[in-house]
Amino acid sequence: MRGRERPLRxxxxxxxxxxxGELADRREEIGAIRRAVENRGKLFVLGPRRFGKTSVLAAxxxxxxxxxxxxxxxxxxxxxTVTALAQAVxxxxxRALTPTLEKAGEAVRQALRGMRPEVAYDPVSQRLTxxxxxxxxxxxxxxxxxxxxxxERLAAARRRPTAIFxxxxxxxxxxxxxxxxxxxxxxxxxxxHVAYVFAGSRTRLLEAMTGRAGRPFWRLGARLVxxxxxxxxxxxxxxxxxxxxxxxxxxxxxxxxxxxAEDVPYNVxxxxxxxxxxxxxxxxxxxxxAQVDEALDGIVRSEHAAYARxxxxxxxxxxxxxxxxxxxxxxxxxxxxxxxxxGLGSSTMQKALRALEAGEMIRLExxxxxxxxxxxxxxFAAWLRVAQAR
Length: 390
Prior knowledge:
The protein is of the alpha/beta class and about 400 residues long. It is built from 17 helices and eleven strands. A five-stranded parallel beta sheet has the order 2-5-6-1-7, with helices on both faces. The chain has a two-stranded antiparallel sheet with strand order 3-4. Strands 8-9 form a two-stranded parallel ribbon. Helix 3 runs parallel beside helix 5 (about 140-160). It is globular and about 65 Å long.
């Protein structure tokens, strides 16, 4: 392979937002987001963690910005309070939807009339700051709704396509429940100049919020479920990039990468990254299944400390339930046979599974063939096999 003579950059990226050219497929999903913004609509994007949701939003944002749209994108999990998120939205809207920052103060005050925002602009650093009065936790979502009303007024005056992307939006209404959902719906359902893309990874919670009749977000907008990249598309994506090193790539090796990563895009990319690094410097002319397994072993050994912390932090019942998810492939875990094999009662198993789901170690998938519990990080199963084989 003569990898040392060819210092090519590894094409398999993970752990950051990927650009449009770095994503495998996802054109349909990016197109759906673009159309929602162009139509000033509302769209709910549902997808488990590690499926590339943030990268899809970033790619759509970049394309829309290239067409002249204003996209204000925020991750609700990054803010300590809803008020802090609201302040960030105000600053972003002021920067993007006012003619100049010098005039932003008055525009913001007009848009947020009744909230009395404190606005300051430093002409030296060209830094705009906006302060919103502290409010009790129960009033934070109504305050955010008023901020969104203000963004709607700014967008109407500016006459530019405008959208707010709110990632992990379930954080905003988590504590307020359906009352908070109603408060947000009451505001945004009236907006005609701002499109909304609400995204989240707590799929079962979001399915209930957006797909259950009677909930405030029911039929507020379309839903886009971010699933695995089709294997055929992903295999083509992988093969094209591996061939930059020369040599041959066994189809079985590509299938092995996707199988052990359980089609989770982040894990596919990470395992492919490790395979690339090993294949680049080792002699040989083919990427094989055995080399994929060696790369996987290297990953789980490098993550031993992190996985071990997760494992020791579980209760006895949770450890048994997690191992049952692995050994039973997530199916029929409360059947008499599974309960007998793993030595748990039905109620204990169910309680442990709910705790693991709340801790974001597993998720429940609804499929045509039935309900299946899946590991959020499929490499955890490989680590556990290695750790317990010592």
